[in-house]
Design goal:
Number of strands: 10
Number of helices: 16
Order of helices and strands: HHEEHHHHHHEHEEHEEHEHEEHHHH
Shape: elongated
Radius of gyration: 33 Å
Helix content: 55-70%
CATH topology of the largest domain: Alpha-Beta Plaits
Largest sheet: 8 strands, mixed
Structural class: alpha+beta
Number of domains: 3
């Protein structure tokens, strides 16, 4: 309902409520320290009007607060609590000097007498505690959009987009929400790669071969097709700590012409392109592994390059949908959370390439991969074992890590079993052998912390 309508009803109910206020108070009778309610017809009408006025007043005040900027929202949302607290404390302090029936009934209820201030102080403390709790709850409610906005900006900064963001809150936050959704919409339009062939409006050959004839028919008939696939996620970052999502998107744009042909060579097709990175789908896990090796080798050839290449490889069931309007083959499954969590592990351990147990188990026997178990992580109740790809480093460093693989994995197993004294001994050995092995350094520090507890 319109605010103007509410305001008119509020004024129309407020005036007669004030006029009938005397009848309402006359119906509240204090006698012999007891409260009796005996309202006349005018008193009942006045009481109903008071209720309507109070409800409409709260609605109008809330709408007024929501129309303000955040700094004013903080003040005006706290103002009623502060005023009520001040009035209650004033009345409590002056209660012993009042002798009317209402005041006497309140004094009896609160067990307050003129000669003893102990109960008065106790009630003042309790009222203050209640006031602080209500004020805290009020701040939690009004700051909730700020917390949502922080998460939205972080996701946009990492290139992890959704259909729509919902922040809520006051008018100022609604404007921010609208702006972020416009950025998100533009970002997705620019970020997703157009997979269609402009001449014949068909999917690229790797995608058609991956889906197969039955998959193409299912897309036309059902609008989707399910396939088990291997996913390679490539992230490019510079050494510039201040770069934002637009800088990363520009970086990927500059080098996508280098990555796309390599993906096509190994039968993969790009499914998602955003500032977070490039997501490539492969029909087999060994093709994803070979493609990632080639991409790393391609960037290693650039002398003095300040670009960091990081990759995540994982095999899973995916549902593919062909959007005829945008001409994109879209993965319906939301893999952004998995990629986000795996990328956090990459950054935390300072490694460059990881793959999951699911992808490792799918590899053919003849495919040689040098790796070591890095640990495991639980996401949405499902456990993922992660392995570090040791073939993305220079030969000397890679051979050193391969030679220490058994000791490292034994130390990780001991750590997971809670045998921290033995684990820290092996991690210390690893660091003496290879001081630049950052995962060993991380585990060594975590193990020392466990022993110290």
């Amino acid at each position: 309902m319109s605010t103007k309508v509410f305001l008119i009803i509020f004024v129309l109910s407020l005036i007669p409520a004030i006029i009938l206020g005397k009848s309402v108070f006359e119906g509240i009778i204090f006698a012999n320290n007891t409260l009796t309610l005996n309202f006349s017809t005018e008193g009942i009408i006045g009481l109903v009007l008071f209720g309507i006025t109070a409800i409409l007043g709260i609605i109008l005040y809330v709408r007024f607060v929501k129309s303000l900027s955040f700094d004013k929202v903080v003040f005006f949302s706290s103002l009623p609590l502060i005023v009520i607290y001040g009035l209650v404390m004033f009345l409590l302090a002056d209660l012993t000097s009042l002798n009317n029936p209402f005041a006497q009934a309140i004094k009896n209820l609160l067990n307050i007498s003129g000669g003893d201030d102990y109960n008065t102080i106790l009630w003042a403390v309790l009222i203050t505690i209640l006031f602080v709790i209500l004020l805290y709850i009020n701040y939690i409610i009004i700051c909730r959009p700020m917390n949502k906005m922080e998460k939205v900006i972080v996701r946009l900064g990492d290139g992890l987009v959704r259909d729509n963001f919902n922040i809520g809150g006051s008018k100022q936050f609604k404007n921010i929400e609208h702006g972020l959704n416009k950025i998100n919409s533009t970002y997705k339009k620019e970020g997703y790669l157009n997979l269609s062939n402009d001449r014949n409006n068909k999917l690229p050959k790797p995608a058609m071969k991956f889906l197969g004839k039955d998959g193409i028919l299912a897309l036309e008939r059902d609008g989707f097709v399910n396939r088990y696939a291997s996913l390679l996620f490539i992230s490019l970052k510079s050494n510039d700590e201040s770069e934002n999502f637009q800088d990363r998107l520009d970086l990927l744009n500059n080098y996508k012409d280098k990555i796309y042909p390599i993906a096509k060579k190994y039968g993969g097709f790009v499914n998602n392109f955003s500032s977070a990175g490039i997501s490539i789908v492969f029909p087999k896990s060994e093709l994803a592994i070979k493609c990632s090796r080639n991409i790393y080798q391609s960037f290693k050839d650039r002398r003095g390059s300040a670009i960091k290449v990081k990759s995540i490889l994982h095999s899973l069931d995916l549902r593919f949908i062909y959007d005829r309007k945008s001409k994109n083959l879209i993965v319906e499954n939301d893999t952004s959370l998995l990629i986000e969590k795996f990328m956090q592990i990459l950054d935390y351990m300072k490694v460059y390439s990881i793959f999951t147990r699911q992808l490792l188990d799918d590899l053919s026997i003849d495919v040689k991969v040098e790796y070591r178990m890095l640990g495991s992580i639980e996401i949405n109740g499902e456990n993922y074992e992660l392995f570090e790809n040791l073939q993305v480093y220079n030969r000397e460093y890679s051979l050193k890590l391969i030679s220490d693989k058994r000791i490292f994995e034994k130390a990780v197993i001991l750590y997971n079993q809670g045998d921290y004294k033995k684990a820290v001994y092996y991690f210390e050995q690893l660091l003496r052998s290879c001081p630049d092995d950052y995962p060993s350094y991380v585990y060594f520090n975590k193990t020392k912390e466990k022993i110290a507890v």
